[in-house]
Every structure is written in C-alpha cells, then in structure tokens.
Amino acid sequence: MRCETKQASLFRGLIFAMLAGAFSTFVSVIVKQIKNLHPGQLALYRFIAIFVMSMPGTAQTGQNPLGPPEFRFFLMVRGVFGGLAFFLNFIAFRYLSLGEASVIIFSSPVVVTIFARVFFKEPCSIFQSISVILTVVGIVFTTKFPTRFNEAPIAYSSEKIYGLLAAIFSLFCISAIQLITRKIRNVRQSIMTFNFGWVGLLEIALLTAVFGNFKWQLCGIQSIYILLLALFSFSGETIVVMALQCEYAGPVSTVRAAADISLAFVWQIVVFHDVPDSYGIIGATLVSVSIFLIGLGKWLTSLEGKIFSCGKFI
Predict the structure, then answer these.
(1) Around Cβ 278, how many Cβ atoms within 10 Å?
(2) pLDDT tens track for 159-194
(3) From CA 187, how far away is CA 226, in angstroms rounded?
(4) pTM for the whole thing?
(5) Which residues are listed as membrane-spanning (predicted)?
(6) What tens digit of pLDDT does each residue of 198-253 get?
(7) Secondary structure of the chain in the HEC alphabet?
(8) Domain-wise residue ranges, the chain
C-alpha cells in the first residue's frame, strides 16, 4: 500500500508540472497580445490575482498567514524572487518571440538540478555535465550569437537586448523560486501562495512605477484577457507548488520546461504566424535534449530511491 502511494505521488507531481507549464504558456500568449500596457502592469495583475484568490484557502487553514516562524524568511525571499522573475519574464515575452523567451527562461532545469545537488544533496546523474554544455550552446544559438561571425551579422535592437537580458535574469530567479519551494515544501500550499502574492504585488508595483507606467486597459476583449491572465496565473502558481510538494525539484522543473517550450513554439507559429529560423530551431532542440537528459537522470534516480524505500515495507 505504501509503495503504491509513493508511485502515485511520483506521477501526480509530474502531471501537475505539465499542467503548470501549459498555464504558463497561456499567460505568455496573453502578455504578447496586450501591447498597450507595460509588462510590469500585467505582472501586477498576476500577483493581485494570486494574492486575492489565495486568501480564502489561507483563512481556512487557521494558521498564521505569514507561515511557520522558521520558514517566514524563506517565504519572503521566495516572494521577492517571484516578483522580480515575472517582471522580467513578461518583459522578455513582450520583446522576444515566444520560442526564444521560453527556451532561455525554461532552461531552469539545468540550474535547478545543479543547485539542488549543491544545497539540498538531491540525487545527481551522469547526464549533468552534458546537459549543462548542451543548454549553454542551445541558448547561444537561440540568441543568434553565431551570426556575429558571419559576413552579415544580425543587428540587435535595444528592445531585443532588453528582452534577452530580462530572459536570462528571469531564468535564475525562477530557478531560485523552485529551489526555495522545494526547501519549504512542508508549508501549506495556500500559505505559500498567499505570501508569494502579497510580496510580489508590492515589489512589482514599485518596479512598474519606477521603470514603466500605469494605464487603463481598453474595454472589450482586453478585459477578458486580463481576467484569463489572472485565472491562469493563480492556477499555474498553485499547481507548481503542489507538484514540488510531491516530487523532487529536478523532475518537476524538467517536465514543466518541456511542456512550456514545446507549447510556446506551437503558439508562436499558430497564433502569431512567426515561423522560427534555423538558429531558433537548433537552440530549442539542444535545450530540449538537455532537459530530457536531466529529467531522465533525475527521474530514474528518484524512482530508484522510492522503489528501494517501498521495498522496506513489503
């Protein structure tokens, strides 16, 4: 009975991670569609939704909404990284194609796996070094850096550079969020989400006031987009916390990234009619192979440990 429970937890965590990736791509499409509002303002809507929708569940726990005293610092830091990550994330999706931004931002499994091994002593596979190299090379191709050595290199606009820098820094922030979530996984999911919401809300309001500007959204379909953005944001944040409470950070970030990158290219072609060039395809392929290797190694290692643990109860 205990073995079946552990195996169910494994697959439940990975299914949650896949759903979180799907919700993330829906949000990125909406951000790409709403061009008249600053990305920071759209990120603010995301955190308002997370904060408000998490309040009923937090109240039902009967616990201090700030969380257990020993985890409050980590909850605050997680919220700070979250606010910065999605401020930069939305900027990247505004100024880059969906595929380019997703390949860079969701290379996080490599970063997560390395630091999960260093800080949490999670199992690590022989695929790690190969995956790191493939990811770095994949990002280089995605940013079209090889064209700098051609006779007619591609010129980078200021917006393109802005988007690339935002995506790279967002990558590290998202990796930090996943690692902290794994560390404090025993905290109730609603309390995690509540603290993530109010800290990120305050941070993004300040960042948008300093680096952007606030405007009223247009009437009609844009209001529906904003409501969907809020709903998908809360759903995605809730589901990824549930995934990390069930499974190791490495496999969760791997499956989520795989779902996000693959769907991002689908939406890029179908919705925005933007066919990726050869550099984008090579970069996405290399990163996807890297993610697959990381996921395979982490999954086999964690599965082996759980089966061994199950054997003690048979």
Answers:
(1) 9
(2) 888 888 999 899 889 888 888 887 888 888 889 989
(3) 30
(4) 0.77
(5) 12-31, 43-61, 73-95, 101-120, 125-141, 161-180, 192-212, 224-243, 279-300
(6) 999 999 999 999 987 888 877 778 889 999 998 898 888 888 878 877 767 667 77
(7) CHHHHHHHHHHHHHHHHHHHHHHHHHHHHHHHHCCCCCHHHHHHHHHHHHHHHHHHHHHHHCCCCCCCHHHHHHHHHHHHHHHHHHHHHHHHHHHCCHHHHHHHHCCHHHHHHHHHHHHHCCCCCCCHHHHHHHHHHHHHHHCCHHHHHCCCCCCCCHHHHHHHHHHHHHHHHHHHHHHHHHHCCCCCHHHHHHHHHHHHHHHHHHHHHHHCCCCCCCCCHHHHHHHHHHHHHHHHHHHHHHHHHHCCHHHHHHHHHHHHHHHHHHHHHHCCCCCCCHHHHHHHHHHHHHHHHHHHHHHHHHHHHHHHHHHCCC
(8) 6-126+154-274
Place of tokens 């409470």: 245
Amino acid at 213: N
Residue 136: what residue type? V
